Amino acid sequence: MRKLNSTLFYSLFYAFIATLLLTSCSKDSADFSFKGEFTYQEQKTIGTILRDELLNNPKHYNIIDDEDNTCGYEYTSKIVEMLVERDMIRNTQNFDWKVYLINDYDQKIAFTLPGGYIFLSTGLVKYLDTENQLVAVIAHEMAYADKGFAMDKLVENYGSTALVEILNKVSNPSIEPLKMAASVANFYYSKAIVREADTYSAAMVCPYSYAADGIVKVLEKTIVSRNRVEWLETKPSYPQRVEFLESYTKKSCCHGEETFEERFNEIKNTCFNQGG
Among 11, 75, 237, 240, which residue carries the largest CB count within 10 Å? Predict the structure, then answer.
């Protein structure tokens, strides 16, 4: 069992609280509403059912139990708790907002189910270099639940009837819930949706002392290294993505500069050390 050093844990907790800055020029986009046929409660219920299918079938994704990586879950939970405090989130109370860690150091994946259930592979965490990059990735993933993109994609791929069957727990549904749940990681989102999620992520991070270039740094590293990052394959880049994000953060007066690289490396070595 991996546990986070208590001194480090509480320093992280208070650091998360202390990083919130007041800004006068940052503007959140007001149009983060989702116009769909499923209520937020129904989205959460469907997401919970699909989440449970993944948790109960490790052959698809080897999801780490909370008690098997206490420090990893404490760390990611504090990040989520910090982000959920942002008043721009539409579903602060409607959704559960929890990160689930997948024990997979080979794949660099992240995906989100309706209801705020975020799945993050240990491989992606290890690939990132700084804490502000991880915060940006988690904030980006939150957009797919909060703005309804994940729900829209389920409807697009499987149809409303199949989702209603799952919602009503029909005994012999036309699409097995496990099959549906296991496919979400491979959902390919349009460049327009990815751009909206990028904007959402930057707006989420902007008021904090974090450098708001987390996504940019991940993109730049991947371009230079030519590493395969499955997360970026399902969220493809749109034209001039780096330039757009740099312009957005500048226009929004995102003045944070902290990356917390040293702290993040300690967390990776403690909580995400393969075979440790």
Answer: 75
- Read off the pLDDT band of 24 (50, 70, 90): very low
Q: What φ, ψ does residue 152 adopt, rounded to 5°?
A: -60, -40
Paired tokens of 235: 């969220």
Apex CA 122: angle with CA 120 and CA 124, to 5°? 70
pLDDT digits (tens, 9 = 90+) for 134-160: 999 999 999 999 999 999 999 999 999
For residue 209, the 8-state DSSP code is S
Cβ(157)–Cβ(183) below 8 Å: yes
Strands (E) across the chain are located at 98-102, 110-113, 117-121
Asked if 196 and 88 touch (Cβ cutoff 8 Å), the reply is no
Cα-Cα-Cα-Cα dihedral of 274, 121, 140, 222, to 10°?
70
Report which secondary-structure segment, H or E, holds 225.
helix 214-225
3-state SS class at 208: strand
Non-local CB neighbours of 199 within 8 Å, separated by 6+ positions: 29, 248
Nearest to residue 182, comparing CAs of 111, 116, 121, 233? Answer: 111
Q: Which residues contact 47 (CB under 8 A, 6 or more apart)?
A: 95, 113, 114, 115, 116, 117, 145, 150
Total-model pTM: 0.89
How far apart are the C-alpha atoms of 199 and 240, rounded to whole Å? 14
